[in-house]
Fold:
Amino acid sequence: MEAQIEDSQLVKEYINGNERAIGVLIKRHNARLTGFIYSKVGDRELTEDIFQDTFMKVIRTLKRGAYSEEGKFLPWVMRIAHNLIIDHFRKNNRMPMFEGADSFNIFSLMGDERLNAEKQLIKDQIDSDLTRMIKELPQDQQEVLQMRIYKDMSFKEISDNTGVSINTALGRMRYALINLRKLVEANSIVLTN
Structure:
């Protein structure tokens, strides 16, 4: 019975107060999501933590009424997991380690403003490069990219604000990202710090 219910229907039921619906969604996508996370982090305990954090974020977003992915539940959940994986690696790469040990070196964090200043310079340079390249995109692509990335608007909101269909907004976003990637490669820009 539960297998026939679409994800989108389960999402609606959960939003309308059926707490069991989220359990069905978690169970349904457990293996796929766990496999995806594990393939990126290679650690069972960390996989479990990120899985839990992913669904906590999913639940908070659904309870806030901020979900608008129109039937694309799994890709949305995978994107949340992907972002949490990136956050994990960013946080841990910032923590200096003892040579050949697994413990953090707290002393290397103290008074190391020069390193932080360097990281800030790199971040500022990346932001500046990206801003410059975004300005090279066609106006309609710039608009969708800025609404989606900087204003965190859904494609429905972008559609309403620009007067184009959701599919057109999605297409513009896709072309903006393709064109940005080409510009990054053409300019040999490294977008990591």
Observations:
- The chain has two domains: 2-94, 111-186.
- The radius of gyration is 20 Å.
- Confidence is low (pLDDT under 50) at residues 94-114.
